[in-house]
Amino acid sequence: MPGQPPHYPPATAFVLVLMVLLAALLVPPWARAGALRQPDLVRQILSPWVLPALGLALVMRHGGIDLSVWVVFTLGAIVSARLAAGGAHPLVVLAAVLAVGTAFGALHAVGTARLRLPSWAVTLASAAVGMWIGSRLSGGRVLVVQRGCLARWPGAENELFLTGTFIIGTIMVVLPVSAYRYVRRARRGPGSMSASLLASGMLSALGGLCWLLKDGRSPMPGHLVGDLRVIAAAVLAGAATLKGNGRSGMVCVLVPFALVLATMWWEWVWPTPTWPVDVNLVALTLMTFVPQWTYTRALRDPGWRAKLWPTLAALGVLSLAASAAPRAAARDVPRTILGMGLWLLGSTATAIEWYKQRRSAGREQAQA
């Protein structure tokens, strides 16, 4: 790949191979359960949650994080519900939703670009404000809209029309920009983070609108964090680890499929339906981020051991995925133990290697 550091193509391949192997292990139990029928699969790929996942992925690609995506998603649904119930024209509702997302995105951009504050702090603070606004607008309850109030929307009988338009439109905008940056070998400008935060706000709010069209109700307000598949999909698609020009387009293409994989993992690997937090999705996010991150940095080291440990950690993730569809129930526990053991071994060894490298670099600087 001309003009790119040599470790970028293998890192990209690592993300792709991990996703393909996860799909190979998670698809069979889903198929046996009858969840791979074409309408169900399309609904998963074009889920409203893909939109905030795309926004979060774009922010991660620029080294930040947007912790307000769930709150803006809920706020977009609440604003849509209030206006739709009042008989507002669909274009008015769409403009209001975009205004909400743009306002949050602009606030985040000012906080990070002008005030030089970390993105997590700015988005967390705005999320708290958004929770208060959402509770005031909704009265602290779920807003339900009659289907007749949504009849004026194009494709109201099937919200996939609108959701798919937003998802595909986002990808079609990001792809040529990524191609241009790759061909021109352009570096990120100072406005790249601001643009990604603006996009994240608008996409999250649009996701709330699509949710309302899908379910006819808003999400429950007052929650800082919502569906954890959003962050799991962004991380699994490589948004937090892939570097270099031309990767944002690929990440955006992968996000919808990563959300499907996260859904499969959520349903079949360590399901905790009665717990307040989806621990299995937290585990998926962490356990895929560690091997991706360490493999990207290990490729800078010519030694084979540096590449072995993140590979073992990735094999641990795949072993856990394999435990979702054991041929015999007794094999579930051994596969789980094997997966956790491989992941812990690879992660611990990588941490030790990283500590040794940092210590050696510190000594060299001190001697210089």
Please give a structural write-up.
The protein has 368 residues and is mainly α. Helices cover 71% and strands 0% of the residues. It contains 13 helices and no strands. Residues 1-7 and 326-331 have low confidence and may be disordered.
Note the run of SSEs as H and E: HHHHHHHHHHHHH
What is the CA-CA span between the terminal residues? 35 Å
Low-confidence stretches: 1-7, 326-331
Shape: globular
| Major beta-sheet overview | none
Structural class: mainly alpha
How many helices? 13
The amount of helix comes to: over 70%
In total, the number of domains comes to 2
How confident overall, as mean pLDDT?
Answer: 83
β-strand percent reads under 5%
Count of DSSP strands: 0
Rg estimate, integer Å = 22 Å
Essential attributes:
71% helix; 368 residues; disordered N terminus; 0% strand; mainly alpha; single chain
